[in-house]
Amino acid sequence: MRSLRRTIGLTALGCFLFVWAFPVLWAIVTSLKSERDVLEYPPIRPFTPTLEAYRAILSGSSSLWLNLESSVILTVFTTLISILFAVPAAYALARLRLPGRRGLGFGILAAQMLPPVGLVIPYFLIFTNLGLLNTYPGLIFVYVYFSLPFAIWLLISYFEDVPREMEEAALIDRASRFKAFWYVVLPQVKGGVAVTVVFVFLNAWNEFLFAVTLGGRTVRPVTVAMYNFISLEQTRWAELSAASLVAMAPVILLGFAAQKHIVKGLTLGAVKGTSRQ
Amino acid sequence: MSLNGAVSLASVGKRFGNYVALHKIDLDIRPGEFFSLLGPSGSGKTTTLRIIAGLETPDTGQVSIDGRDVTHLAPGDRDAAMVFQSYALYPHMTVAENIGFPLRMIKTPRADIERQVRQAAERVRIAHLLHRRPGQLSGGQQQRCALARAIVRSPRLFLLDEPLSNLDAKLRAETRAEIKLLQRKLDVTAIYVTHDQEEAMTLSDRMAIFIEGRIVQLGTPEEVFGRPVSSTVADFLGNPPMNLLPGMLVGNRLTVEGQTLHLAGGVGNDPRPVLMGVRPGDITLDPNGWPATVVLAELLGESVIADLLLGQAPLKARFNQMRRFAENEPVRIGIDPARVHLFDPTGPRIDLKQN
Q1: Of B227, B252, B282, which residue is a domain's last?
Q2: Which of A118, A233, B53, B291 is the most buried (most CB within 10 A)?
Q3: In chain A, which residue's Cα lies nearest the Cα of B50?
Q4: pTM given for the model
Q5: CATH number, domain containing residue B13
Q6: Alpha-carbon dihedral angle through residues B106, B107, B108, B114, given to the nearest 10 degrees
Q7: Residue among B92, B102, B149 whose CB faces A187 most closely
Q8: Distance from the A194 Cα atom to the nearest Cα atom in chain B, whole angstroms
Q9: Each residue's pLDDT tens digit, B153-182
């Protein structure tokens, strides 16, 4: 009975894994094909693997280096700024008994539900007037605007988990308010900060809509650049696959690095989140 | 006497919203004294300690330490160390880092920190655990770590908030004795919050009983135990607590459940309803005494705690002998008139006049 359930469970897990991983696997295979092999039918047949597509996107005429650089600039600054503001904000919201705290939590969620498409045109007009169109500060501002509420909301539950007494002990042990935060509270929410970094990073790295409308020709992250491989006459599947795999790499690396924290953080956040609402 | 670690509260009051946690209380704690704040939960004892520590600011009144007004001073500037009920150890630091934290915060040189941490750890016998983290310690060891963190800075004031309540019974008794010894050796003023009257009795030089935000009695354990000022205090102290039975006092004749007791004194000749208080240990088996029935008897070893029925009134007695009782066994009990406490039905103690 037990082993049967185990078998069924493993089979189901295997199916999910295959369905989830299939596009990625397909992309890996496609990226190793030549343009000619890609268009062969039926698609599953022997072919000679080639790194031609990778060569093209990393050094050739359609090099993605500048776009990767754009992505890195956008993502790193978005993440840094978001964390820099989210950590103190979340700490304050978790610790201070502010009136309307609940309302604020709802507001943050409501803001998350707003479809971003609705804001594209207003942003475009405002940015045109402010001269922020096609600039890094402009796009970073938009990204921070969207990620900050979520980051704060995510971090609050971590700060709430740090017992107040611990901070009071630090105050009695002659720490200043800031030192108590820095030496006692912050190290204990490290995991939460890691999770938040991953989420903010992910959102910024994968963003497409605002980048394509507000970034113009000067600020052009990988997500937008990849669209160049799709044109009216043809889609360069091999290069597109290679590009998406290259674009995926940093996210996957970050995921592995923060894996321990993410799993713990998601379950913790989930339970805390539902109990608080 | 040196003025070191004297604490004085003058009409200190605190409310949380509409809830009055502390009515204006006055309290003077002498240097070097082991002073307990005893009371049931919600009585204001912890609030008082937190106000002394500086973790709460009183709404009214003034807190002074050694004659200096510290009411608005930060907790770290009061030279007071505190042991929390939860110990509040820093989980991400080793035991050594935990103990050294108060020194690190005032930029003590590294070598000095190391030496002082070792000394403090040796004092509470955890020097072999310095490299561990709090999560790897037993409850008793965590407790010692918290104590070491408090003594490492040689404070003049030692604040303890129910430090023993998370330990098991045996460890609690051991640690209790150690805390007392430590306080004597360090010659420091200790203020100890507890709801356990046994802890307060055994540890304290003096103690204050808190009930509903007021200090209702203050004195040495002997004074408080021997002469409770009200039926509430009497009911709170002792294990099991004092029996309180309604009766009638006429002159020096006290009538309870149809039985009469001749007291050494009275309060005039008008009949007056009273509460008779008698401690379980002051009730004896006496062939010439009052008739009662044993409802339940618990053998504790050297003594027996018996639930008795005297007429309609339930009564607890502790007989200092090994003896088994049958269910509903009739017994005769003696009450020494000299050990009877009298209270007004509204609470306050009644003192008898000799006649």
Answers
A1: B227
A2: B53
A3: A168
A4: 0.81
A5: 3.40.50.300
A6: 110
A7: B92
A8: 16
A9: 989 899 999 999 888 888 888 889 889 999
